[in-house]
Sequence to fold (341 residues):
Amino acid sequence: MEKKNIDWANLGFGYIPTEKRFVANYTKGAWDNGVLTEDATVTMSECAGVLQYAQTVFEGLKAYTTEDGRVVTFRPDLNASRMADSARRLEMPVFPEDKFIEAVVATVKANMAYVPPYGSGATLYIRPYMFGINPVIGVKPADDYQFRIFCTPVGPYFKGGVKPLTIKISDFDRAAPNGTGNIKAGLNYAMSLHAIVTAHEEGYDENMYLDAATRTKVEETGGANFIFVTKDGKIVTPKSNSILPSITRRSLMHVAKEYLGLEVEEREVYKDELENFAEAGLCGTAAVISPVGKIVDHGKEICLPSGMTEMGPITKKLYDTLTGIQMGRIEAPEGWIKEIK
Ligand SMILES: *Cc1c(COP(=O)(O)O)cnc(C)c1O
Fold:
């Protein structure tokens, strides 16, 4: 397979269209088989449900080249089931989970020339999404839907080295109790934009959102879950039903326990405990883990002992182990790696 002539190491995180994308349509109560197409545009009614009432959900995962030259994705079954959960919550028809995985495989296979080589740090980002496409003006679910997958090569996340983040405890809320915080829907991102733009203007990298009901407990950032390391080396992650269940975070908790022999705990984490932690990190597909160096609560600075120059030692171990599993350097748990062939 001849690779595209792309400067992989210097790619950013932006949309670079590839040759093929997958499109399936849901009409008259059923999904069609879907096709791969070169047409990167979507044509729809001016009154499409997604445009009027934001009926859309999405997923994000990556394909990459392992040390021994295989092209793989990481736990796509969990993306399939999470997208099914998201769809049900927004009254959308579920795209069958087995078909989801087949479509991911077909899309990556059709774009093999864009899968970055091993060692480049770059990956092929895969974006499945679906939306209500027929005209909807009275508020109700759409009747017809489109499911699509495109992919785009993205550069190494830690270009120029790891820089621990400075994050702000936000005065905005991300998700209501019993709301939509636990599904991957564009609507959760639309409402986070003002908060993140404001935080960036103030010099912060990210927002830490608290639980909306009591504003005493840590939830997550706009697009990544937290893990914390206690001073005695225990891994703690916040438990809440308004957090998006990150596949990276769930995988890291498994790695911590089963590969590193660490104690792990998913429990409510109070804002007042933050100053007791030794390390903190943000988990998501994009970075795997980004270390947090400083958390600012209305002028009060909480500086993590791991500092502002590198990942904390346990965060680093977690990062190295999970990326080792993903890149085929460390044996993966059964079913975690889906080879594209
Ligand atoms: C996608 C997402 C994450 C990260 O999930 P991964 O499955 O690890 O990529 C975390 N929080 C939010 C709000 C998200 O949308």
